[in-house]
Write a structure and sequence with these properties.
- The protein folds into 2 domains: 265 residues, 3-Layer(aba) Sandwich (Aminopeptidase), CATH 3.40.630.10; 114 residues, 2-Layer Sandwich (Alpha-Beta Plaits).
- Helix 2 crosses helix 4 and helix 8 packs across helix 10.
- The radius of gyration is 23 Å and the shape is elongated.
- 46% of the residues are buried.
- It is of the alpha/beta class and 383 residues long.
- The longest helix is centred in the first third of the chain and has 21 residues.
- The strands form 4 sheets. The protein has a 6-stranded mixed sheet with strand order 1-2-6-3-7-15, with helices on both faces. The chain has a 4-stranded antiparallel sheet with strand order 10-11-9-12, covered by helices on one side.
- 34% of the residues lie in helices and 24% in strands.
Amino acid sequence: MSDLKQIFDHIDEERLVRLLTESVEQYSPSFAEEPAMEVFAERLAECGVRYMRQPLPESGGPVADVRANLIIELGPQPAAMMWVGHVDTVPLIGDEEQTIHREGDVLHGLGTADMKSGCAAMVEAVAALVASGVVLKRGLTVALVVGEEEYGDGSEALLEWRTAPLTVIGEPTGLVPCVDHYGYYECLLTAHGTRAHAALPEMGASAIHAMLEWMQQILELGRKTSFAANLTINPREIRGGAGLFMVAEECEAAIDIHTPPGVGKDAVDQLIEAARNAALDTHPRCRLENDNRYWASGYANAFDHPLLDPLRQAFEAAGTPWTPEAFRSHSDGSMFHHKGSVPVICGPGRLEVAHTRHEHVSITETVQAARLYAAMIYEACVV
């Protein structure tokens, strides 16, 4: 274990906290990631870690011509293990300023948990590895990617160029290893009715009433499915209507559905259609349409998969419990699984504070993440 101790000894908590803080200070929503990416690139250069940039093809974003992933390749290639972290965040909530500040062990700010702490821990683990002089017997690839908070164009570009048998993605899990992953279904619902004077609603057909009924039926039928205990349905947005004193003739709604591993797209399609038919029973004069905008399948890795052995050993070496769970949100993990990799989601921070006004991360947990990632390098690429 002397090699692992050498790597541990080169983990610099102060340097890690400074990197995390500086990266969070850079506002980097999807399609505007470059300021934060530059922070990570500068730190790697300071630590003598070589990296390359992978420009993305034109993707229609306002600064698409300068967007690029950051890639580190160490040891013999192709890599045995790949780490992936995204540097983009969701936009600020409204016009509020989510000011970065520290309270004891906790750093507050947009992107702290999701997932600049994971990215910073990865970079620190690599810097410690290089400083230790430990030689890798098998290759490691580290990819800081763009666009995850949209539809994963950074990882999509990465996978056209590089992959690995084992992939670790540093999304916030509280350092719990998530070896299984939920599926994600995003749908746009549209209701078309008939305009009428508000004083005579019976002369028209309210698209809003029909939409409310459709969404209610989706929620109710979802609670009756065979997989209801692990199903999450989130009505994300509803909009439409008409001017003053009119019955609404148009209404749209967006709905997100997270499905447990093993539940396919067809099952969700059937749920949406059954709810549509139920809504039409009470609103026969309206037309209801749905459009599945995005589907990412879930997956379940075998508990005893041999590629998970180095991770189990790394958790033991880092003093972190190995208690596998399923990742209940969407991530780029499904893309890597589709390419034949075994993805594991594991990073500092809590999913429940991501995308909220009070997003934060524990400094202690972020340092522990760097130690855990260092142990993963040792077990997967050195031993």
